[in-house]
Amino acid sequence: MHYFKGSDILRKVSNNIRYLRRINDLTQEELGMAIGVTRHTILALESRKYEPSIALALAIAEYFKVPVEEIFYFDRGDD
Questions:
Q1: How far apart are CA 2 and CA 49, in angstroms?
Q2: Cβ(76)–Cβ(14) under 8 Å?
Q3: CA neighbor of 54 nearest in space, from 13, 4, 2, 7
Q4: Cβ atoms of 46 and 17 closer than 8 Å
Q5: Which residue in 19, 21, 22, 69 has a CA-CA distance of 20 to 30 Å to 28?
Q6: Do 31 and 59 meet the contact criterion of CB atoms below 8 Å apart?
Q7: pTM score > 0.85 for this model?
Q8: 79, part of any domain
């Protein structure tokens, strides 16, 4: 079994949120407005300065119509 350090998890979550936003051609501000947070919150998520709550992760997943597990997905190879 492989265990991840907190910094590994936060890096992956940040990368996954950025990936989903970019493939959907959204700015940080557009994503923030769509899910009810500020651009600063999206910036903080993507720069690993803020860990998303479960509610925020669910909102992001719902917006992109992906399972919430996609936010926490580890095998994309996007290090």
A1: 24
A2: no
A3: 13
A4: yes
A5: 69
A6: no
A7: no
A8: no
Region of residue 52 (phi > 0: left; psi between -120 and 50: alpha; otherwise: beta): beta
Cα–Cα distance, 29 to 38 (Å, whole number): 7
Please tell me the predicted confidence (pLDDT) of residue 13: 92
Which DSSP string do the residues of 14-53 spell out, in sequence order?
A: HHHHHHHHHHTT--HHHHHHHHT--HHHHHHHHTTSSPPP
Domain coverage including residue 25: 6-70
- Torsion angle of C-alpha atoms 24, 40, 51, 71, degrees rounded to 10: -10
Q: 42 CB contacts (<8 Å, ≥6 apart)?
A: 17, 21, 28, 29, 31, 32
Number of domains making up the chain: 1
Average pLDDT over residues 38-47: 97
